[in-house]
Design goal:
The complex is a heterodimer of chains A (429) and B (178). With 429 residues, chain A is mainly alpha-helical. In chain A, 50% of the residues lie in helices and 11% in strands. In chain A, helix 4 runs antiparallel to helix 5 and helix 13 packs parallel to helix 17. Chain B has 178 residues and is α/β, with parallel strands linked by helices. At the A-B interface, helix 2, strand 6, strand 7, strand 8 and helix 16 of A face strand 3 and helix 3 of B.
């Protein structure tokens, strides 16, 4: 029996890798009653899903052992998008590395920029001006909405409603336009800087954000009206992919997936960064732990994000957007172009960068749209990190799939993956 | 060793030093985070104690680091959070350069499964009693551990078993026209 699975498949690439993953599937303990060797109707099969399956949100590969339509056990194979960004970081200055973080969770680049910048600011003890904090919070919450909109569109499309995808993308398009005005890029905006942000918001951009936050709640209400009492949607999502609170904590679930399983753990409340302690918001939590609960949690999170943005726009203080200490942050372009010192400082920041104290270690986490996004940095006193570890939420949530897919129907696989909402750029690093 | 610990941290550190006086090697703080350096042979019992007595029920991450020194070259750092006290503790073990091995904590937190696989994949640190010790990002056929400092950046690497053909005077002839 032990060689059974391996005999059934004949790998053509990375032979050793393929054999080991099938062997791991074979060895996996499963609680489902096994139909032992006798299988006269030939109902058992091994299904290879991915890495290029359109519904797996990127290059995610699942190996499923099926008994008829029921998944008996699952193995997840990740690493098809592994680019080694942690190794790249060791050979770059902190600011040079920042655009790479955009390519991690590419659905919410702003959160990633802020995660790196706040981590570096913590280890190098850089003070950030008040206005920059509020601009960062606006950017982070817009990024959260953007990420949740993509999740909503694709998850509902996975459940069968294709036109929904187009409606959520219409709203995302507005967000792209805002980000274009915000920092000059539609997608990977790299707007945050160590010590502040790249530039102040323009009047035009403020008007666009205000338009968006006044119109978006109506859109959201419309979607609630369409989905909340939709028989097909509820049947596809209720009691699917259930994860209990204890299991969620034991297996390291994070973000909306953990909160939908009944534990309100949010880095914005636990260890407030930027000025999240100055604004008022709730942490949406559900107890059921199924896919429908994850839907409600993310929908409510979008509402909370709008609340946060509104408060930030009211409170937005006047002042500089980047720290004025030229040893810690890039000087403004006005200084660079019109003064000798400015140009020297600009050169030094590009060449050497900011140098945290030798031997310092720090960990700082922000609440990204997918969950706790943390950066551990160990410095050797130069401008390059000695070790930079990215604690990426999608990686944690993908590990759950090996548990929650077991015992589900094969048709629910894509809905569950959609509900967990992994981004492979981040999971594979 | 002057530490500036809050009440919650003080309780944890006191508990650790009382119960594992021999095995806790060092406690230090760096930019606001608290690190506990422990003896690698005691990692499982210390983690069990921290989870069951000190409420560190959530393991946020396990990651490796390479000091590139002759002694204690590799490090494994366990990033755990106490949800009750809302604090975060980093437990660290240091391992030797040759065949770095440490016991797996998958028996304490199930989530350690993938994290330890990642450490193995990147640094070659093996975890004993791990249920599924395979590489996670790189394919099983890969022969290097890319995050170790001995793996140089921007160097082309041929597989170890690759037969490098000697260059002949007329390489077109040897390669294409035979």
């Amino acid at each position: 029996m032990s060689q059974d699975i391996i005999n059934k498949v004949t790998p053509t690439f990375f032979k050793e890798h393929q054999e080991s993953i099938y062997q791991a599937l074979e060895d996996k303990h499963t609680t489902i009653e096994d139909i032992e060797d006798a299988d006269p109707l030939n109902t058992k099969m091994i299904l290879n899903m991915g890495p290029q399956h359109p519904a797996t949100h990127g290059v995610l590969r699942l190996i499923l052992q099926l008994n008829g339509e029921v998944i008996e056990k699952t193995k997840v194979d990740v690493g098809y998008l592994h680019r080694g960004v942690e190794k790249i970081a060791e050979n770059k200055t902190y600011q040079e590395f920042m655009p790479y973080t955009d390519r991690m969770d590419y659905l919410a680049p702003y959160s990633n920029n802020v995660a790196l910048c706040t981590a570096v600011e913590k280890i190098a003890q850089v003070e950030v001006p008040e206005r920059a904090h509020y601009i960062r919070m606006i950017g982070c919450e817009l990024a959260r909405i953007s990420s949740h909109l993509l999740w909503l569109g694709t998850m509902v499309m996975d459940a069968g409603a294709v036109s929904f995808f187009i409606w959520t993308f219409r709203e995302r398009e507005k967000l792209y336009d805002i980000f274009d005005n915000f920092g000059g890029h539609r997608f990977t905006i790299s707007h945050s800087r160590i010590g502040g942000v790249a530039n102040d918001l323009t009047e035009d951009c403020m008007a666009m954000i205000k338009d968006f936050v006044s119109d978006f709640p109506d859109e959201l209400d419309g979607w609630h009206g369409l989905l909340d009492r939709n028989r097909i949607f509820i049947d596809r999502n209720e009691d699917v992919g259930v994860l209990k609170t204890e299991d969620a904590l034991e297996l390291g679930a994070t973000g909306p997936t953990l909160r939908a399983s009944g534990y309100a753990y949010d880095m914005r409340k636990v260890s407030p960064y930027a000025r999240y302690d100055q604004v008022d918001f709730e942490v949406p939590t559900r107890l059921e732990g199924d896919n429908l609960a994850r839907y409600y949690v993310r929908m409510e999170e979008m509402q909370e994000s709008i609340r946060i943005i509104n408060q930030c726009l009211d409170k937005l203080p006047k002042g500089p957007v980047r720290t004025d200490n030229a040893k810690q942050a890039y000087p403004s372009k006005d200084e660079v172009y019109y003064s000798m010192e400015g140009m020297i400082h600009d050169f030094m920041m590009t060449d050497t960068g900011i140098c945290p104290p030798e031997g310092a270690e720090s960990y700082h986490a922000v609440e990204g749209p997918k969950g706790e996004l943390g950066y551990y940095i160990k410095s050797d006193g130069t401008g390059h990190p000695w070790r930079l570890k990215i604690n990426s939420p999608s990686f944690h949530n993908l590990q759950l799939l090996e548990r929650i897919l077991d015992g589900e129907m094969v048709a629910d696989t894509v809905v569950i993956i959609g509900g967990v909402d992994p981004v492979m750029g981040e999971a594979d690093k | 060793m002057d530490l500036d610990l809050t009440k919650e941290f003080q309780k944890v550190i006191d508990g650790l030093t009382e119960n594992f006086s021999e095995k806790v090697l060092n406690v230090y703080q760096s930019t606001g985070d608290t690190f506990v350096l422990v003896n690698p042979t005691a990692i499982v019992e210390i983690c069990t104690y921290l989870k069951e007595e000190q409420n560190f029920i959530y393991l946020a991450d396990v990651f490796g680091a390479d000091n590139f020194t002759a002694e204690n070259r590799f490090e494994v750092i366990y990033n755990m959070a106490s949800l009750k006290d809302q604090i975060r503790l980093f437990v660290k073990v240091q391992l030797e350069e040759n065949e770095p091995t440490v016991a797996s904590v998958t028996g304490v937190w199930k989530s350690a499964n993938w994290y330890e696989r990642e450490v193995y994949d990147m640094f070659g640190i093996t975890f004993t009693d791990h249920p599924d010790m395979r590489r996670i990002y790189m394919p099983e056929d890969y022969e290097y551990f890319p995050c170790a400092k001995s793996f140089l950046f921007l160097v082309f690497r041929a597989p170890l078993n690759c037969q490098i053909q000697p260059l002949t005077s007329n390489r077109y002839e040897s390669r294409y026209y035979k």
